[in-house]
Structure prediction request, 311 residues.
Amino acid sequence: MKTDEELIEKIKDGNIAAFEEIITRYKAKIYKIIFSIIRDPQDAEDLVQEVFIKVYNSIRKFRGRSRFYTWLYRITVNVALNYLRKNKKNLEFIDDIGFSLKEREIEEHIYTQEIVKEIFDLANALPKKEKLIFILKFQNGLSNKEISEVLGLSRDSVKANLYHALKKMRKSLREKGFLGD
Amino acid sequence: MDKKEFRDLRFIMSVLDKSRKKDIEVPELENLESEVLRQVEVRELKKEINILRRLEYGLVIGIFLLFVLLFPRGMYDRIKSSYPGTTIASSSIEDVIYEVQREISSYLDEEYELNSLGLENMLLDYEDTY
Prediction:
């Protein structure tokens, strides 16, 4: 299997098949990132197309200073945030907590639907930047380093934002009596 | 960070991680590749059309400027003498100007004649009186 970098070089030389391979490789991941930000399945599909068209049009500007996928994710996040701005929608950490925890999970941790709901509500109430970091970390599984490259922040800044947000949530949970001693 | 805080934060993070486990259903996106390639092609074509359109405008303006710059009066006169009776817009204007000038001068001549007649009559009256 060819690496991303090999495919990018081929795309720069006008190889359409290489571009098709990149689309196939990343389309599901891009869809997930977009959906986790905009929460609209139909528009998410359209935005996936937009992302790849943007990638094709600006591929010559990609100098390879960062990994290709972080450059691709950065375009993806920008496209999704632009969509929210244009449609005057808010960024949500999660719109619906319509999933129940399995019995095994409840046994392993002392979760209750109530505490899960409270934590997600607190995550939704975070400032936009922190919420975006949360979405990329917890819903898309990106590492702090990847998040820093995607959002153009330093790794320390990502860590600080994350820690600050978690501390705020902890404080609130303690005040409401959700966390025991 | 103390032990209790570490435990709490880990707990919160483990709950937040559950949001990933609520798997986002990815639709088939079957024709995505061909659709993206089609759109890329359409955009490329549009770009080319725009370039051609600009070239076309440039060409028309260029030809017009060339015509204006390389069509000196001598050439106009040569065409006029080569094709007598040809009516060109500028020659019609000249004719009109000439006609207007003629009209004015004939009017002035008449006025002069009238004035001079008047003066003559006055002189005759004067002579008769004195």
